[in-house]
Design brief:
Oligomer: homodimer
Shape of chain A: globular
Strand order of the largest sheet of chain A: 1-2
Strand content of chain A: under 5%
Number of strands of chain A: 2
Low-confidence stretches of chain A: 1-20
CATH architecture of chain A: Orthogonal Bundle
Structural class of chain A: mainly alpha
Number of helices of chain A: 17
Radius of gyration of chain A: 20 Å
Number of domains of chain A: 1
Largest sheet of chain A: 2 strands, antiparallel
């Protein structure tokens, strides 16, 4: 309670300087979410040591492996990421009073590695050229190294969770990875044709994003020794946060800010929520999207911009942010059932920052 | 002892009809290894029920998964494989008196799935077009589905081992997969340049073949409740059998029988033992191999045949089979330290069949 109060009183300075919170804080500040920026600044001080430990562990991943696949994997890990999944593990454990000790850190790092493994494989599947403001690992080291680099990270993540001795966590992480692969495969099967199908979208996003957020919070809560009802509640927070995160990602793809390849999803024929909404509202747009998807990325940029403008004119981008906010509100309602204090306030800030981000 | 005797007395009929032993038996018979064929025939009857169970389990893998990645994975699993790794698990367990029950079957299937996962990823890396006499999964379902199909199989394999409750086996399988990925990555790094380096060859083959054979026999022995010294001995059998298996594979690539893409290794710039030997013996050949490797597969078939003839003229193919036989002999010496009986005789037959095979 006192920790929570001190957070609320924290000065609204810029939360710059830390690789984890800095990006979230910066985008919040830039886009007028001053309150979020202020709370993130306070968090930064509170979590500084934990976040430094996290980055050190991530920098050490694969340190003994000099092969091309490890170099591909380390290339991705070295790029500045938001580290939001490990942050979820850390905060859920702290909610149960457990510090960022060896086991919690192992699980937090494992989350980031599983996420990174899917990015390495995705970039090969989507032929992605840029990520986090840098060339993708597959561009630098080749597709094969990127595939094997992803394999390395999956194995490394599972080994870390195994060393914690928490057998149920290892079992559930295997299930999570299986669900993520199924989500990617489902997305793959729909590639090249555009069908505005809400259920298909939700099924893909469950696999590719929500299950890992859910697991991060459940695993952290379990390690933190929270009661079963709190583990369930945090799992629901993770599910809603993951959905919100993906919906905002969908919008960012069409807003085309720096650091992301503009309209990559659109050009790859991926089903995103704003495209589903726009197609429902303007059937002629659906036909144009199908033509885009069938062209398999081979679309003039001006034509892509024109289609994005038409999508925006339907209100689909604003409404997708609104949908993300509804998931965010659901996450906050579940958080409200948990004990007050700095960890809960931090998770609330993570939810708000995820919604406010523009990159 | 009596089982062993009955095996020795078995009639020398053709061991046809079973998907596991039939291929090993056929190649042995075709190539004059009548004794091996005879012993395999006897084994077939003894192991018939186990092998049927194995094939049924393999046919059920991913039965619930209809996505494109599972279809790619099942495409490979449905092709006739030698199933020699699951056979190793089964026989090592039987050596300890344990039947092919649920846990042993789970580990046996896991071995085949890990092997299959690496094939799915390898075919994407090597752009392989044919395997087991059929188009590769990546040709039928695409590279992306093949990558994700491999991911599915790795997860499935680990889940199966986890369900046995044998935590040390799950841990060691993770290590094995990590070593396999490292072996593939090492091979990848050397691609496009040909350097006849014996140490590099041995390191790659340890990872890509020997560690999984070793694990199969150690895991089976552990499940069979064999004493630690026998587990160690069987691990050494696996190591030697894996090396022998790979050396014979290397020769088969250059012999170009049906079912394999002739000279695929040579064209991909892969370091194989006969190529190392030939390059050591004829430095002008090393230069031609480097040119091949640099051409990245773009070599006229007639030129490839001419190089293979030159390699054969150095005696490298015969000497590689001889080297495989030395590993086979080492495997048999280790087997000789284990209790006599049908399981040991069966493992001896597997070693001999691996050496005798021509496809």
């Amino acid at each position: 309670m006192s920790e929570h109060s001190s957070l609320a009183r924290a000065p609204a300075t810029e939360p710059a300087g830390h690789p984890v919170l800095e990006p979230l804080g910066r985008v919040s500040r830039l886009h007028g979410a001053a309150d979020v920026a202020s709370r993130l600044s306070a968090l930064r001080d509170w979590l500084a040591a934990d976040l430094t430990d996290l980055e050190r562990d991530l920098a050490d991943v694969g340190a003994g492996g000099r092969d091309l696949a490890w170099r591909a994997a380390r290339h991705l890990l070295a790029a500045p990421g938001k580290r939001v999944r490990p942050l979820c593990v850390m905060l859920a454990a702290r909610l149960g009073g457990r510090p960022f000790d060896g086991a919690v850190r192992a699980v937090a790092v494992a989350c980031e590695l599983v996420h990174s493994a899917t990015l390495l494989h995705d970039d090969v599947i989507d032929l992605g050229d840029a990520r986090r403001g840098a060339p993708t690992a597959r561009v630098v080291y080749g597709n094969a190294a990127s595939v094997l680099g992803g394999d390395h990270l999956l194995v490394d993540a599972l080994q870390r969770v195994r060393t914690t001795g928490a057998a149920p966590l290892l079992a559930s992480l295997l299930d999570v990875i299986g669900a993520m692969v199924a989500g990617e495969a489902l997305q793959l099967a729909r590639r090249g044709r555009f069908e505005p199908d809400r259920d298909a979208y939700l099924e893909v996003v469950q696999g590719k994003t929500a299950v890992l957020f859910r697991w991060a919070l459940e695993a952290g809560a379990t390690l933190g020794g929270l009661p079963a009802s709190s583990v369930v509640a945090l799992g629901e927070v993770g599910d809603a946060l993951g959905m919100a995160f993906q919906l905002v990602d969908d919008v960012i793809d069409l807003e085309g800010d720096a650091g992301k390849t503009t309209c990559a999803d659109l050009r790859e024929g991926k089903l995103t929520w704003p495209l589903v909404l726009a197609a429902e509202r303007a059937p002629t747009l659906a036909a144009r999207m199908r033509a885009f998807a069938a062209a398999d990325g081979d679309v003039p940029p001006a034509e892509a911009r024109a289609l994005v403008d038409a999508v925006r004119a339907t209100g689909a981008l604003d409404d997708t942010r609104a949908e993300a906010s509804r998931y965010g509100a659901r996450a906050r309602r579940r958080l409200a059932t948990l004990p007050e204090g700095a960890p809960r306030a931090a998770l609330e800030a993570v939810v708000d920052a995820a919604l406010a981000r523009r990159t």
